[in-house]
Amino acid sequence: MAVHKLVLDDVFEEALYTLIAIHCTIEDYRLAYLLNKHLGINLTRKPSDLDYNKDKSVYSIFEWEDNKQLTTWSLASNICKTQEILPQVSQQSLFTAQEQIIKTFNLIPEYKGVNYFLKIDNDNSFSKEAYILSSILNIPQIVTAYSVDVNQLKSKDNLIFS
Predict the structure, then answer these.
(1) In the chain, % of residues over pLDDT 70
(2) Region 85-97: what's the mean pLDDT?
(3) Burial of 35 (0-12, 13-18, 19+ CB in 10 A)
(4) Which of 2, 29, 85, 150 lies 20 to 30 angstroms, CA to CA, from 143?
(5) Which InterPro entries match (predicted)?
(6) Quick one: how far is CA 68 from the chain centroid?
(7) What is the C-alpha to C-alpha distance for residues 89 and 11, in angstroms, rounded to an integer?
(8) Which of 153, 149, 159, 79 is nearest to 121 (CA)?
(9) Is the dihedral of CA 35, 131, 121, 81 positive or negative?
(10) Residue 49 to residues 43, 59, 134, 161: CA-CA distances in angstroms?
């Protein structure tokens, strides 16, 4: 009996993209404006946010498709804070107090301290990573930014935005 071996290396090829982690405390729309200004791109807010965990966590996303370079730029928030109200326990009190809990969810749980991720999708090898990183670090409102090795991420499926 002959043994047949299927090689599917071409079918399940990894998507080539660069991932940059950004630490800053400014709002998402302000960061998108500053990146547009300093990098010469045109990020715009998508009509619908990224929705994970069945409406428990929602992350803002900005996107721009560069047709000349065949590149897609995506800026996604990494932190989602939700407020939950605990059910009241009947107490013998004149006033009722509701206890509120703020829960924090992360798009990429391995990087809890990162505020935003800039994902640059490109089918070809992307050689401008050092230039982009230095341009981002020149923005005064950004504390720090660095490249992330995507192959080391456990939750890289969360980076599929379409």
Answers:
(1) 82
(2) 64
(3) buried
(4) 150
(5) IPExxxVDY_fam
(6) 24
(7) 56
(8) 159
(9) negative
(10) 14, 6, 28, 10
